Amino acid sequence: MRVLLVDDQPLLRSGFRALLDGEDDIEVVAEAADGARGLALAREHLPDVALVDIQMPVMDGIEATRRIAADPSLAGVRVVILTNYGLDEHVLHALRAGAAGFLVKDIEPEDFLHAVRVAARGDALLAPSITRRLIERYVAEPPLPDARTALAGLTNRERQAVALVARGMSNDEIADRMVISALTAKTHVNRAMAKLHARDRAQLVVLAYESGLVSPRGL
Asked: For this chain's UniProt record, which GO biological process terms are given (predicted)?
């Protein structure tokens, strides 16, 4: 898998690169010190995963994420936000902008490598406990009308699948809960993403909370 590193701290980039280059199945294709250069390199190299810092000069990580998500030629690029601060409002803004998830920079090396592979598969990097705390802190209550309207176009089974995605379940776990095949579960999730114009599962999670389909207090 091909990885792009975008961080304004050279020492951190070097550490991440050394870790990734040590894996047989991962290649670091480019590095950038700001979001504008990162965006240009994403268009040039079409990586599977872009690891993007939030706070950078020229263009921050949230704007870079938004532009990557809005570019049809970069539909296959999964943006993972790197943050020093853990749960904060910037992370939620990044998820709304199209990020597939986020990692705290002091993550253990084996967890970091696992996360890159998870993102490359197209899965969201959103542990249920972390998601719940993030949404409780920053998502508006009561539910947002636009989000509720968007979910109104889903079938009952698609709504159920989205709710289970928001609880951190994989397609196999959704299949077990709904008593359907894994392929059918994947179909429900993909159709919901298409109807909601969601880039990935992470955006489904945010929409599920913002619409009131799922409540943090109910988890």
From this structure: phosphorelay signal transduction system; regulation of DNA-templated transcription
